[in-house]
């Protein structure tokens, strides 16, 4: 085994609803609000699409996911040669790291962000610089200060998981203006479809000026397809060609591709999800402990508390499984019924 893998551990999923019920003696339904999934599920059209392709399970998918690539190309108005699909962004992040990093290279990212940038860099024996957040936000200037000749990749997450905070179009533009153009800046926009802020970056537009700005998107979150494992990167064609060499030939399943096609077509459903989520998000922010929350543009809210485990347990007691962090609890926004229950808990809880 590679020596550096010894310092990592396998992904810890947290207890399942069944195990939690046993451990805490909980009766009644438990809702999983720990992984930022879309509780409403995908568009109903997705199920129809999957059902109509059930006879093809014995065949490998077409390599490179050409149908969904074509559809995304039209949807975003970018050439298909600039898009690469993975079995979720998890695999896209793995492929990029595998293709680009060797021992001694450096990546720069933030503290308290999506863990897979770090994890995959360590597997490749790269050094990871994690710049602390500034008041809960990515510190883009701090990140700039860490970029040097050894830097091979910069990972940004916008909006950020687990804080939910975002940086604006002008901030990203100002940042890209200062990064040397040979260093890829990868912006993970896994939650972009939930964003309602008007000044959120148009990263696709910025790509026209900054060919080193790469963009990650997924069908796992607002599109409700976390179980299907499909996500993609939009980047410079040369980068896509290189990453494609190490892509496993049949990495995205056949049904995943059909599911994503149907989900993409139903933009009305996506609008419904965005609006419903934004309404519910506001309910959390309306409580008088607003200062304890990071600002969120996503389908989750992060509550800062010195007693994360107690808060986690209090939320569990009203049937909601959330995710505990050393400095707080991340709550995926659920159906109104669960949100209302969690809000009542938060009102009474001494953070
Ligand atoms: C910021 C961010 N990037 C990537 C992922 C991975 O998404 P996928 O399901 O597409 O692998 C997640 C999942 O939680 C995420 O929060």
Automatic annotation (TrEMBL):
Claim: Amino-acid biosynthesis is one of the keywords in the record: yes
Record carries keyword Disulfide bond:
no
What organism is recorded for this protein? Staphylococcus gallinarum
Which UniProt key words apply to this protein?
Amino-acid biosynthesis, Aminotransferase, Histidine biosynthesis, Pyridoxal phosphate, Transferase
Q: What is its pathway?
A: Amino-acid biosynthesis; L-histidine biosynthesis; L-histidine from 5-phospho-alpha-D-ribose 1-diphosphate: step 7/9
Q: What is its EC number?
A: 2.6.1.9
Quaternary structure and partners? Homodimer.
Pfam families xref list: Aminotran_1_2
Instruction: Please identify the protein, giving its name as recorded.
Output: Histidinol-phosphate aminotransferase
Matches recorded under HAMAP family: HisC_aminotrans_2
User: What is catalyzed by this enzyme?
Assistant: L-histidinol phosphate + 2-oxoglutarate = 3-(imidazol-4-yl)-2-oxopropyl phosphate + L-glutamate
Modified positions (N6-(pyridoxal phosphate)lysine) are 221
